[in-house]
Design a protein that fits this description.
By secondary structure, this protein is α/β, with parallel strands linked by helices. The chain is built from eight helices and twelve strands. It has a seven-stranded mixed β-sheet, with helices on both faces. The protein binds S-adenosylmethionine. S-adenosylmethionine binds next to α1 and α3.
Length: 281
């Protein structure tokens, strides 16, 4: 893919990213398999996987009756799934088209949800109420420049005793060359504050091209991710690394139950995801 380093301010980067995410919504509404949510028992694979990890840390090992804030909820497939698992859900995203699609999906699925349009880095100022669970997963924090500001939102959204959950692409995975015929390092693992500027007219699922192909992302090493949460005052309950991904990071990945993985001989060489569960005491 076409990537360069860019000195760009947050506001300009965020506006550029927002245009790109707006363009992706109609393509994802086709590609995400929304008809499956007509079955009232259907949960997304992402939420099924995440619930198995999260449940042991919840009161009664269930989301039933808990207030949950879903950061970067996109078109709501995971938010609807979290509601079906019993949570009272608020979905947060900066893309009005994504939230419109999410509210249509929730209505069609017969699920109650609140949708809030905001930059996740301003979420505490804009979202009403406090939460037992703050959840975010798969394709989230590389879109953010400042993880200390992100972690401060999470702590401020949580009630005392509340639980934070994230599962996302592993920063070691993101350092690999997605186009190489072998596992080859290409991009920085450690960030230096500058953004990676990408120009890609395609999105990660579905057909069609994007009118706004430019995006900005920031590499965040594990030390920065965990450090930001600990500095904000959260207590680490659980940390894990996984060998499968819900999207095809590289064309060399093979389909496996629950998503995609490197060819078998390479699966122990590099992690695909990390999971963090932490608590506000
Ligand atoms: C890959 S999706 C993650 C959602 C989920 N894993 C899914 O596939 O449905 C990333 C989402 O982050 C949102 N996003 C990106 N930057 C954001 C920001 N600064 N504030 C709020 N939302 C943001 C995008 O609009 C998009 O909906």
């Amino acid at each position: 893919m076409n990537e360069t380093n860019a000195e760009i301010g947050w506001e300009e980067a965020r506006a550029t990213n927002r245009e790109n995410w707006e363009d992706r919504v109609p393509l994802h509404e086709v590609a995400y398999g929304l008809d499956a949510y007509d079955d009232p028992a259907h949960l997304s694979d992402v939420v099924r996987t995440d619930l198995a990890a999260l449940a042991p840390f919840l009161p009664s090992e269930s989301l039933a009756g808990l207030d949950l804030c879903h950061l970067q909820c996109h078109i709501g497939t995971d938010t609807v799934s979290l509601a079906r698992a019993g949570a009272i859900v608020t979905g947060v995203d900066f893309s009005p088209s994504a939230l419109h699609a999410a509210s249509k999906l929730a209505e069609r699925a017969g699920v109650d949800a609140t949708w809030v349009e905001t930059d996740v880095l301003d979420a505490r100022r804009v979202v009403t109420g406090d939460f037992d669970v703050v959840y975010t997963s798969i394709g989230t924090i590389t879109w953010l420049d400042d993880l200390d500001r992100w972690a401060a939102q999470i702590v401020a959204l949580l009630r005392p005793g509340g639980t934070f959950f994230i599962r996302d692409g592993h920063p070691q995975l993101y350092a690999l060359d997605e186009d190489s015929p072998t596992l080859t390092l290409r991009y920085p693992y450690f960030g230096d504050g500058t953004a990676q500027q990408w120009d890609d007219e395609y999105t990660y699922v579905g057909d069609g091209t994007l009118a706004h192909p430019r995006t900005y992302e920031w590499p965040h090493p594990l030390s920065e991710i965990l450090g930001s949460l600990l500095r904000a005052g959260l207590r680490l309950l659980h940390f894990d690394e996984g060998k499968t991904l819900p999207w095809r990071f590289s064309q060399r990945m093979i389909e496996v139950p629950g998503g995609f993985a490197w060819p078998e001989a390479e699966q122990n060489l590099v992690p695909c995801t990390y999971t963090i569960i932490a608590r506000r005491d």
